[in-house]
Amino acid sequence: MSETTILNREDMVTAKTSVSVLFAGDSGDGMQLTGTQFANTVAVYGSDLNTFPNFPSEIRPPAGTVAGVSGFQLQFGTSSVYTPGAKFDVMIVMNAAALKANLNNLHHGGIIITDTDGFDAKNLKLSGYGEENNPLRDGTLNDYTVFEIPVVSLTRKALAETGLSTKNIDRCKNMFVLGVLYWLYSLPLETTIETLKTKFAKKLDLAEANIKAVTAGYNFGDETEMFSQHGRFSVAPADKKPGVYRRVTGNEASAIGLAVAAKKAGLELFLGSYPITPATEILQTLAGLKKWGVKTFQAEDEIAGVLSSIGAAYGGALAATNTSGPGLALKSEGLGLAVILEIPLVIINVMRGGPSTGLPTKPEQSDLLMAMYGRHGDAPMPVIAAKSPVDCFYAAYEAAKIAVEYMTPVLCLTDGYLALSSEPMLVPSPDDLASITPVFSPARNADDPPYLPYKRDDRAVRPWAKPGTPGLEHRIGGLEKQNETGNVSHDPENHELMTKLRAEKVARVADIIPDLTIDNGPESGDILVLGWGSTYGAIKKAVEQVLEGGCSVAHAHLRYINPFPKNLGEVMGHYKKVLIPENNCGQLLSMIRDKFLIEPVGFSKVQGLPFNEMEIEAKITDILKEL
Fold this sequence. Notes:
CATH class of the largest domain: Alpha Beta
Number of domains: 4
CATH architecture of the largest domain: 3-Layer(aba) Sandwich
Number of strands: 23
CATH superfamily of the largest domain: Pyruvate-ferredoxin oxidoreductase, PFOR, domain III
Distance between the termini: 32 Å
Largest sheet: 7 strands, mixed
Helix content: 25-40%
Strand content: 15-25%
Structural class: alpha/beta
């Protein structure tokens, strides 16, 4: 936990620069909603934040068990926050299983707020502690500050006169504990109250009950003697660049990035999609943007989703599809069709644990090689990766720009961590975003030469022909095309030429992408930590820590996976060792080794969890000892 300063000894309000909080309980305890409301409040208050929802794959896993624990972690602070925190400062646990699942990740001396009603004999048995081993009584928690609150009992008391059933009253217990935390961290109730009024606008009795519960929790914190020796805490608003901010998840940011790109390009946006965890929110977000002219199609399967988008692209729309690992595998033949057609298409792949159904709600980076090579034939396409929830907006926007201007499908990689996590986004001015310029072929007169749909410019890019435009009639389909004319061709030399031309076009994307820069640290030294995707925050914090200790370590982060930045090899050559942390078994490492003939140090984590800064810092320290 960050250093503290007593602001007011009478009120015992202690200022902190950052705090990491975990809400944990059964999947039916509303921990995701509670965490989201807390995140909304600190965002409106002005703090920077980073969140990490972590929940089981089952819709309703066994209640009271460790396997059924749902958690929502966030860190908020007065300066830039890049991770949800390696360890928690405060842990709110609604039952014994939530404590058992997460205690090892609580800072020594950290705060535990427990719902003692969730520590009865039944819950203790289900959690694995055993009926006779209550951690609240056996000394397990002696090294922590524990606040025992009978949350269910107090919620029932506060809502006794609402007329609601006991079942509905108990569903408000998460709001009670949220109110306690608002009091503890000197945060206002207004944002949550307004949200509850909107959420339950058609069920006023539930709105009133939840508002009473969160208010009762706040008042409990204010009136009880429980906190008198510890007082309250506060985290000042972050010093941010002026502007309009909005808290977004990575999925929301991806969706908005596509919509803004379509507007910037003067095109209609079409999303052909099939729901799949954890990518569905992109479809849901875009379905709510009809007023922007966005068209969404929920297809019967993944193949229909991508093929409908290919049809929309052929018709002149900015077309996109979204999916996760198993869905990307199903779409692979369609992606090959998009490659041979040479039409613009954005594919957002939200990676999750695999193979097969794997870990549907857990993040992983294990689709990288499938994104690169997962199509039959030589079928290259640009691949870019987002590094943060907000960066999902810019990655999707840039994927659309490359797709439209280079007439190619583009794969944009995010993962379950980025997709479901959130942070404040400074809403950009449209003038600050790069232009997107489609190259449509104009109508032709009867006396013009025959239209050549695959006649390329100096970037090897063919023109975009809208169906129905006079004089632009041409063949389209999955059979190989004759160079320039687009006629079906089985000529061996023509096939080799077209294969090379398609590859050349993708390679030339390197001409417009920026050089790789050092994010943090010296331009040369002992170790370069080379990351991609969602490892950004953990690497950045880890490198900051070792730099403070005087180590010669730097961090660079890849957005462009195919093609690589032109100076990547040169940058890596300035360091004795290159460390590549990945949430897979070394896929980027293999690509780097194959292309640059160096031997990087791999660091893999495939546990369905993102890296934290402590893990990467420890790995850096181990390598430094060997130099």
